[in-house]
Each structure stands twice: as structure tokens, then as C-alpha cells.
Amino acid sequence: MATYDGLFRTLGLEDWCARGDPAETSAAPQSMRDLLAQTRGEDPEAGIPLWDTPFPSLDALHESCAAIPQSRELTRGLEQGFLDIRHVLKAGLDPVTQPLSVALRNALWLFQETPWWLMIPLLALLVLGVARSVKLAVFVVATIAFLAFIDLYDEAMQTLSIIFVCAAICVAFGVPIGILMSRSDAMERGTIPILDMLQTLPPFVYLIPLIFLFSVTEPKLYGIAIILYAIVPVIRLTNLGIRLVDKEVIEAADAFGMTRRQKLWGVQVPLALPNIMAGVNQTIMMSLAMVVIASLVSAPGLGVLVLRGIRNLELGVGLVAGLGIVLLAVILDRVTKAALARVDKSTAARQ
Amino acid sequence: MSDTAETKIALRGLYKIFGAHPEEVLPLVRDEGMGKADLLEKHGHVLGLRDINIEMQAGKITVIMGLSGSGKSTLIRHLNRLFEPTAGEILVDGEDVMKYGEQDLRRLRRERMSMVFQKFALMPHRTVLENAGLAQSVRGAERKTLEAEATRWLDRVGLEGVGHQYPAQLSGGMQQRVGLARALAANSDIMLMDEAFSALDPLIRTDMQTLLLDLQAELSKTVVFITHDLDEALRLADHLVILKDGAIVQQGEPQHILLHPNDPYIVDFVSDINRARVLRVRSVMKKGAERENPTGVVDAEDTLESVIARSEGDTDAVYRVERDGKPVGVLEMRDLVRALVPMRPAEDTGEAGTAPLRAAM
Questions:
Q1: CB contact under 8 A, B124 and A350
Q2: Which of A86, A118, A219, B33 is the most buried (most CB within 10 A)?
Q3: B134, B165, B178: best mutation site toward chain A, by most A Cβ within 10 Å?
Q4: Which of A252, A258, A271 sits opposite B117 (nearest CB)?
Q5: DSSP per-residue string spanning B159-204
Q6: Using CB atoms and an 8 Å cut-off, which of residues 244-283 of chain A contact chain B?
């Protein structure tokens, strides 16, 4: 007998309960506790001591009253609901996100097909262009050469190409969203809870519905997961940066009759640039964090080796791949920070 | 102030109330005369401006003076509608600015009014030259015109050869010269100056006042100047408006206000002033009078200080007052000495033709 039988009896709901599932309301012992009580010769009707009274959860109530659903009905219902709308979602999302798959495939192809003796100088040139630091370019070349030397070059390039694509998309969408947020308080109030949720949801949770929606063979599966996770800082800091622009300067812009567009591109965005760059740095670092987790859903790169290390207990492989990820993180961080410092310095000279 | 000057900007019955529902509490202030403290306590609204009526003459400097919180910065921001009034009319060149749509308002700000700010408000990411050419670039002028115009005005305010620098590399005084050049380069008739010199050192402030007066002699713009400094107000003003708690206490010709303050608040205000240096002969002379054998001849625009120096303290001296070589009156030293002592608030004596509007306290 279950704990809350008495409750339903007092409330006179026995008939309603019985309509649930007659098979489950049989007198047969249901739980281990009941069985134990029976073997000990205790009378199950004597009731359960107060100390052991279970919380009146769905499952506990279900034991007394079959009309009340069990907790597993809830999860099953969610699942069924999601599966029911899956086709609609898929039909809508598939074409929209297709360019992401194309971009990721092409980036992967490009980074892997370009021979190393062309790729490494190109990356060095990129660092020189962004950070204007020879020292940093040398450091980047040395790091990649080291990764190549221990035969992690291909994996590192795969990881890097995914980050390039995803971070670029994050900036392309995040900056405009941040600008919109900075212009409308309603938009800010509406967006911040979503950003909070994206930031606090465990990264693995993104993957679950995505697996149902898209085929595991499609790169956009992990692309979307990475973008959702990494886009938050660039949105937040763009919004913040624009809101922090000196009110007096904005007033002067208004007093001289600037249009909203002139104000945005001529005053607000240039003055918010240091903050926006800090957001880009954060976004790139978070892309790297997620690209490792995304190897669970077939994202290629260093994460795959880490996963192999865990799955096959290949300690050495996992550790070396982990080191590779750390090195990638260091060069990405250094380069974006150097670019940020360059922006900061050119604004600091003016303030 | 000449009687023939045309009115450039007119404010009629201007009210500004800050808060959630300004229209609802407006009748309380306008019709029932509720005060600032009561309004804040009982209705949670802040009274910014109350029944402001000012006629600003074309080509003259109108100075609006008041202590902090008196509403003077709020007032100037209504002229180009950076703030929207709760009630009242704002007429510029006879047109009601309140009826302007977005386009017209932008044209007003771009072409007819320019503004100088207390904290300079220069664009930190643009060079001095680009800052000075702001009005031109906003209008979409070509780079060449922009640079020519900006350079011309930078040179005029005494900033040759700093065009390529950034504002942060300049001192405060130089930054405000850039601010002034920026406003001048707009080539607008009207210049709004919100405590433009308040953030500067006293010496530099005096320099800037001199610069402004020189420019004014040359350009005759309609200047609206906000300040909390009475010395500055008296030096610059053709027309002086004194604000307290968002309402006008007295307005008129500065010399007249000094000699005939109509409110204890203004008496307090003017008591610390060096009157001999501020008051001019024309304000204390007997108009049109003639006298045989004057001690000497003084100009109507001379300060009393210079007359005292000339008389060597002789209180019996009598001077003939001339303007442009023609006699216009007589100055007795006894009147001069009397004028040096601050007066109690008096009813307006009705002279000089600039009857001050006595605002409700």
C-alpha cells in the first residue's frame, strides 16, 4: 500500500483514481519496501513511519492514485511534443542554416587542402595585419610548427577553421543585435534573459535537440551549437560599449543635427570599438571551448583526440591533444588581445 | 540695446516639468501656482521651467544667469529642442519650432543654430580639424570645403597648426577653442553657449570672453550664453535674464538690473560685485542735462572706476558726458558715489525703457 492512500480516501477521490489504470491499483506489493515489510511479517496497512514519508511527488501520488501521471510521463510528453513539431522546425531551419554547413565544409576543405608551407606564412601575415607585432607572429609560427611537428597539424587546422567560421558568424550577427539592444530598452529587457539562458545552459544541453533536428553528418549541427554558445559576449559588450559612450558627445552630435545613422557609424560604434573588440576576444575563446565539446557530435579537430583519449583510455593521446588545445587558445587569445590593445591605444591617445 | 533690433528668438509661456506625467500636473503649476518643493513632494515631478518669456534680439548677446539647479541649462536645450517643452511656444525667426517635423528640426540644428558645451563634448576619435568641420561633414560637404572652413575658423580662434592632433592632446582652453571653432564653422546665425567658459581657469576664461566679444563685433551673431558667473554675465550681456528655481526673477539691460534690482535674491547676487568697474557713466548720468563750466568731459561708455581715477576723489566734480563727440548728459560725482552702494530692492523707476518683467516667485 502506498503512503497517500488515506489522503485520496478522505478526499473521496477513490472512484476518480480508479478510473486511471485498474491494473496498477491491485493489492499486489509494488515496491521493495512493501515486499520487505511483507517478509518481515509487518502489516503494510500499519502505514509508513513519519521519518520515511516520501515527498508527495508525482510518482508517490501515482502509487496511491493511478489517475495521476508518473514523472516519466512528463519527460515522455516533452519528447513526444518535440518530435511532433520536429518536421515543421526542420523544414524551417534546414534551408536557413544550410549556408552554415556550406561555409564550414568549405573552410575545412580550404584549411586542409592548403599546404602547410603556404598556410603557416599566411597565418603569420594575418597576425601581422591584425596585431602589428613581429614578436607575436614569430610566436604563432613557432606554436603551429610545434603542433605540426608532433603530427597534430591537421587536427589543429580543422579546429581553427571551425573557430574562424563560427566566430565570424557570431560577430556578423552579434554586433547588429547588440546595436539594436543599445537603441531600445524594450529590446534589451527582452534579450538579456535569453542571453542569460544561453550562457548558463550546460553546453551539452544544446546538443540534445540539435541531434534530433539535424543529421549528425552535417557540420551545421555543431556549428549552431558553437554559435549559440559563443555569440553571447559579443552581443553583451556591443550593447554595453554603445551605452557607455559619453552622453555629452551624443548630445553634441544631436545638437549639430546628425541623423541616427551618422551618429551610429560616426560616433557610437567607433567609440564603442574597444568594448566590441573585448567581446570578440571572449567569443573566440568560447568558440574554442565549445568546439572541443562539439566533437561529441562529429566536429572534427583536436576534440576528437581528447574524446578518443577518454573513450579508449589512451592517456597519452588525450593529454597531447589537450596540450594542443591550450596552445591554440593561447595564440588566439594573444592575437585578439594584441588587436584589442592596438584599438585601445589608438583611442587612449585621444582621450 | 536698440529699440529697432528685431527679435530672433522668442520664448512664450514656456513650461518644462520632468516626470512620468508632466501634462497632468501642468495645470497645478500654471493655474494654481504650486511651487517646486510642493510639486516634488506631492506629485513626484520636478519643475524645470515656469512661465518663461524672453525676446532675444538678433545680433545681440543674451545672457541667462542663475545658480546650479535654476534651470538655465534646461532652458538653452529647449531652443534647439534637445528637450521638449511641456507647454509654450518657441519662435525662431517668427517660426514656431514646436511645429517642425524631423527634417525641419534637423535643418534648424545643422544650418541655423550651433552649440558650444561646458565640457567641450568634442569627438575623441576625430582630429581637431575633423571636429571643427563637424557641421560641414554632417551636412555632407566635400572634404575640401570642410577642411578649408575648419582651418579658417581654427586660425581665427588662435589654433594654427593643431588640426592633425586629437582633442585629448590639447589643454582645456584649447579644447574649448576647438568647440568654439566648431560652432563658428557651422556659419549659423544663432550660437548657443552652455556654460561654455565655466570649466576653464579664470585667466583663460577672460581670454575667451575677449575672443568672443571680438568675434561678436565682427560677426554679430545672435548669442545665447548661459553662465553662473555674474562678472562674466555683466561683461558679455546685452540683455541679462536672471533665473531662480526655473522662473525668471528679473530681465533687462545689465546696468539697469544692477542699479534697480527688484528682488532680494538679486540684491544678494550683485552685492559682491565691483560696481565701479562694471557700471558705466551712461547708467548714472543725468540725461539731457546741461551744466556750465564742467570739470571735464567723459565718454558715456567709460566705467565709473576710470572717472573716479580722473577726479582724484573730488566729490564736487561735475563732468559733461559725450557720446561720439556730442553731449548727452551730465555726471555729478555725488550720483556716482551713490551708485557705488548697493541698493535695497526697489520698485522699478521706469527709466531707460527696459522695464524688467517681474516674474512670480
A1: yes
A2: A219
A3: B134
A4: A252
A5: -TT-TTS-GGGS-HHHHHHHHHHHHHTTT-SEEEEESTTTTS-HHH
A6: 246, 248-249, 251-259, 262, 266-267, 270-271
The predicted complex's ipTM stands at: 0.83
> In terms of CA atoms, which chain A residue is nearest residue B107?
A257
CB-nearest to A351 from B80, B117, B124 is: B124
Domain with CATH 1.10.3720.10 in chain A: 79-350
CB contact under 8 A, B167 and A350: yes
Residue A259 C-alpha cell reads as: 541623423
**pTM reported for the whole predicted model:** 0.81
Q: Is B78 on the interface with A (CB under 8 A)?
A: no
CA distance linking residue B101 with residue B108, whole number of Å: 11
Q: How many Å lie between the alpha carbon of B139 and the closest alpha carbon of chain A?
A: 8
Q: b or e along A220-257 (b: 16 or more beta carbons within 10 Å of the residue's beta carbon)?
A: bbbbbbbbbbbbbbbbbbbbbbbbebeeebbbbbbbbb
Parallel, antiparallel, or unpaired: how do β-strands B326-332 and B286-287 relate?
antiparallel
A245, A250, A259, A350: best to mutate for the B interface, most B CBs within 10 A: A350
Domain A79-350 has CATH 1.10.3720.10: yes
Euclidean distance between CA atoms A351 and A349, whole angstroms: 6
Per-residue pLDDT tens digits of chain B, which is 361 residues long: 444 568 999 999 999 999 999 988 898 888 888 888 888 888 889 999 999 999 999 999 999 999 888 889 999 999 999 999 999 999 999 899 999 999 999 999 999 999 999 999 999 989 999 999 999 999 988 899 999 999 999 999 999 989 999 999 999 899 999 999 999 999 999 999 999 999 899 999 999 999 999 999 999 999 999 999 988 999 999 999 999 988 999 999 998 898 888 888 888 888 888 888 888 888 888 887 777 778 888 888 888 888 888 888 788 888 888 888 888 888 888 888 888 887 665 544 444 433 344 433 3
